[in-house]
Amino acid sequence: MEQKLPLPPFNFETATQKVQLAEDAWNSKDPERVALAYTVDSEWRNRSQFINGRAEIVKFLTAKWQKELDYKLKKELWAFTDNKIAVRFEYEYHDASGQWYRAYGNENWDFNEHGLMQRRFASINDVLINEEDRRLQ
User: Is the pTM of this model over 0.90?
Assistant: First the structure.
């Protein structure tokens, strides 16, 4: 059976490690790498989109990073229980015209016993920023 360490039940150290691993994977901008952290039948809500399974995750992330250029993400642990983690995050990117954005949000994660995320629910808001106002580089 596939496993993704650390495994639940989480404590502060392992929840923090899981968040850092997710941040590192997303900052790689490699959809295949990111998708391996999720169950094959994973359920997502990302803004108003509903995404199911690794194939849809890869398709979604591929399109995302074709539009969100020079993407840089920072995640922070918000809370955790046995197999759940909540994070707050912000990321910055620019579009093809050069307009910069900062996106803020929260995610709720639910893991199976093998450490794979089976559910991810994200609420995200974008704010226009000037390039000189970037915080994440």
Answer: yes
